[in-house]
Amino acid sequence: MRRLFLRSIALLGCLFATSVFAADGLIAVKSVHSVSATADKLESILNDKGMTVFARIDHAKGAEGVGLDLRPTQLVIFGNPNVGTPLMQCAQSVAIDLPQKALIWEDAEGQVWIGYNDPQYLKERHGIEGCDEVIEKSEGALGAFISGAAK
What we know:
- This protein is 48% helix and 25% strand.
- The protein is α+β, with helices and mostly antiparallel strands.
- It has one domain: TT1751-like domain (TATA-Binding Protein), CATH 3.30.310.
- The chain has a six-stranded antiparallel beta sheet.
- Helix 2 (35-48) packs across helix 6.
- It is globular, with a radius of gyration of 15 Å.
């Protein structure tokens, strides 16, 4: 029952987003906000849900610092050891992809996107076995966090 609930949350999050695409393990959702406002909203959601926000990196600001141009691009790094540790116990190599990251960027047409690693992709990439419940929980939570920040 809980598994069905979490999948439903992830599906609803995707349906309420204006557009979603997935490619090479990245799930991206259109945001109705600027890059900065989307990242602010995501951080607020993560903090409200008890997640740890480890860092926020402004790649455009970094590029500017060396005299280069880059459209607005920010990365939010976050996690929760209650989720990450069981995944690492199943396949320790997944630690290279944890903590989780959300990339928020503006494309060439001015559309803002927020993307994250698909937990199913991580499962396949690292050969994770015996952690289906944790993977499904991650899918539901990430979907809710990302769709919440995008709208």
